[in-house]
Amino acid sequence: MFSLELLICYTDGFFTRDDTQDQEQELENNGPEQSYSLGSYATDFQVEVFAVLMVAQRCKSYAEEKIFICSSCHAALRAVSSLRTRSILVQECGNALKFLSKQKAVGLV
Fold it and tell me: Is domain 6-11+43-108 given the CATH code 3.30.420 in the classification?
């Protein structure tokens, strides 16, 4: 029996530099960190959903068979796992996770 390769991604590091600058989300995994500017009006919820979306899109090309996406925003994780949504961002994130889960084992933590 072989063991599956495992990748753990963290959507951690939400911060603002000061009141006049944009909010950013850092994505960390076993590789390099990436940072995205989301503007000064993005909410914590939107930032976390966007981070999960970016991780799901990046992980499609990784070789690991099992992926855990860790987020500190439980509301974002519940939203992307729900069957109904009115948010286009949440819907896009949910679709990306469904697509990824057809190729790999995906867990949201």
Answer: yes
DSSP letters spanning 53-80: HHHHHHHTT---SEEEEE-S-HHHHHHH
Which of the 8 DSSP states describes residue 94? H
State phi, psi for 94 to the nearest 5 degrees.
-60, -40
Per-residue pLDDT of the chain in tens (109 residues, 90 and over written 9): 444 588 888 886 454 444 444 444 445 455 556 777 777 888 888 889 998 998 898 888 887 888 888 888 899 999 999 889 999 999 999 999 999 999 989 989 8
Four-CA torsion 74, 105, 55, 5, nearest 10 degrees? 120
Our measurement of the distance from residue 8's CA atom to the centroid of its chain's CA atoms, rounded to an integer in Å, reads 11
Euclidean distance between CA atoms 82 and 104, whole angstroms = 20
CA distance 4 to 90: 29
